[in-house]
Amino acid sequence: MIPPPFDCQACGACCSFSPTWPRFSTEAEADLDKIPEKFVSADLSGMRCDGARCLALVGRVGVATSCAVYAARPEVCRACVPGGDDCLMARRAFGLDDTVVAPQGDAVCEA
């Protein structure tokens, strides 16, 4: 069964869940060069975080968020399926409901 579309722009939990999650894995050098240096960790292994929160995340988790590098986001971010196990685990860590879906017509985050 396909999970319903989650409104990622009203969530952001996956981007604030773990400082070890936003790691680079399969990205080509050319793709990594598209991410501004201020968002890349000092050891170049992944996205720079403030605690568990990715520095590219803008806004307030569970209210309104966006990604400052969305078009160039790493593969690990692209692989987090809205409504999937990782998404739901992150949402639960922030006390967010598992069943929140985007109202029809609004922007949603889809894989």
Structural features, described:
InterPro entries: Puta_zinc/iron-chelating_dom (IPR005358). The protein is an alpha+beta fold. It has one domain (8-93). 16% of the residues lie in helices and 11% in strands. It is built from three helices and four strands. It has helices spanning 29-32, 75-79, 85-93, and strands at residues 49-50, 53-54, 57-60, 64-67. Strands 1-2 form a two-stranded antiparallel sheet. Strands 3-4 form a two-stranded antiparallel sheet. Strand 1 (49-50) and strand 2 form a beta hairpin. The longest helix is centred in the C-terminal third of the chain and has 9 residues, at 85-93. The two termini are 15 Å apart. The relative contact order is 0.29.
